């Protein structure tokens, strides 16, 4: 999800600082989310995507088509 979030931001030609401004966050908060230091809840994810002009459902659908890289094996 983090890779896709960053890819969507960069494809939109929006810097971390600009996204932070749109969200009334700090650039450090955006960076922490993109690197996995800070997690986004679903409400924050929806706001993040809206700030980029994207829809949550489209993002989730695209995320579901990406290969999963899990740090563990499922049984």
Task: Label this structure with key terms.
mainly alpha; 75 residues; globular; 63% helix
Structural write-up:
- The chain is mainly alpha-helical and 75 residues long.
- Helices cover 63% and strands 0% of the residues.
- Helix 2 (16-23) crosses helix 3 (27-35).
Rg for CA atoms: 13 Å
What percentage of the residues does DSSP assign to strands (E)? under 5%
Number of helices: 5
Counting helices, strands and paired strands, the structural category is: mainly alpha
Mean pLDDT: 90
The H/E string reads HHHHH
Q: Poorly predicted ranges (pLDDT <50, ≥5 residues)?
A: none
Number of strands: 0
| Helical proportion, percent range | 55-70%
Largest sheet: none
Shape: globular
Measured between the Cα atoms of the first and last residue, the distance is: 22 Å
In a nutshell, what does this entry contain?
With 75 residues, the chain is mostly helical.
SSE inventory with pairings:
Elements: H1 2-11, H2 16-23, H3 27-35, H4 42-51, H5 56-65
Helix pairs in contact: 2-3
């Amino acid at each position: 999800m983090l890779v896709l979030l960053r890819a969507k931001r960069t494809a939109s030609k929006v810097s971390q600082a600009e996204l932070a401004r749109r969200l009334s966050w700090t650039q450090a908060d955006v960076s922490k989310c993109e690197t996995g230091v800070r997690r986004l809840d679903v409400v924050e994810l929806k706001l993040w995507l809206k700030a980029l002009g994207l829809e949550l459902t489209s993002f989730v659908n695209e995320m579901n088509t990406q290969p999963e890289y899990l740090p563990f094996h499922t049984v």
